[in-house]
Write a structure and sequence with these properties.
alpha/beta; TIM Barrel; eight-stranded parallel beta sheet; four-stranded antiparallel beta sheet; 35% helix; globular; binds succinic acid
Length: 311
Amino acid sequence: MKADISTKIAGVKFDACIFNTSGPADVTLAELEIIARSKSPAITMKSCTLEPRAGNPEPRYADLEYGSINSMGLPNLGYKAYIEFAAVLKRKYKKPIIASICGMTLEDDIIMFNAFNNSQVDIIEFNPGSPNTIGKAIVGYDAKEMDRLLKAVSKVCKKPWGIKLPPYFDLVHFDEIAKVIKKYPVNFVTCINSLGNGLAIDPATEQPLIKPKGGLGGIGGRYAKFTALANVRRFYELFDRKIQVIGVGGVYSGTDAFEFILAGASAVQIGTAFLQKGPGIFNKVQTELQTLMAKKGYIKLSNFRGKLKIL
Ligand code: SIN
C-alpha cells in the first residue's frame, strides 16, 4: 500500500503535501494550467500587485550549479487577472487555489485581500518577504512594519491565510517575528523566500549573470535548503503547532521533502526545481517520498512530522 502523503493546510485538504511555490512559471493562465494538469495537488499563483507589472529588466533569472538567482521584480498581470484565473482553474481542475499578495503599500494589500475574499481562491499567502522589488525594503525584516501590516490585513481577510517569510539568520529575529505573527489569526507561514541579494558572476565576461540591482538577486535551489530547514524547524518550535509551517527551498527529491517534514513542515513547495526540471518534478518528489516512507515503515506524514531526533 502506498504511504498517505495527503495533508491539510489551513483546514483545506491537499491530496499530496508537495506543490508549487509562488514565483516560477505561474504568471499566465497557460502557465497555471500546466501546474493544474501536473501532480501538484494545489495551484499557487504568482504574487500579484494592484496594477500589472512588467518586472525588472532582463536578464533577470539564471540557473546556477546548485540552484538559481533571480531578480524578477514581481512581473504579474495585476490582481484582477488572478481573480479571473482562479474562477477558470477552479471550474476546470477542482484543486485548491492559492493567491499570493504582494502590494506596494498597505492600502494596495487591503484592496487585494478584500477582492480575493469574494473569489474562488481557497487560501491567501501574503508575501512581504520579496527581496527583488527595486526601492522597496524586505518588509519581513521589519517587525514593527510587519505588525502594522498584519494587524490591518487580519481585519479584512476572510479566507484561510498565511505569510511567506524571508529567511532569518539570527535567533533573536525568529523570536521577534514569531511574537508578532502570534498576535494575529495566521494559519501558516511559508519558509523561506529566496536568500536575498546574492551575486553570481560570469568569470568569462566578468559581468554579473543578471542585470537588475547591479547583479544582486534572490538565491534559490540547493543553496537555500539548509537555511530553509532551519527556518522551518525554528518556527515549528516557536509556534508550538498552533500555526502551520510550509517549507520551500532546494527541494529536488523525496529525501529533501522528507527532511522538511521531519523538521516540522506540514507541506513542501517546489520553486527552482520546477523551473529547471519541469512539471514532472511534482510526481517525482511525491513518489520518492512515498518510497522512502515505505522503507522506514511510515504510513502517513504524522508518523514523522516534526519528530527530528535530537543528538
Ligand atoms: C520576484 O518576482 O522578484 C520574486 C518574487 C518573490 O521573491 O517573492
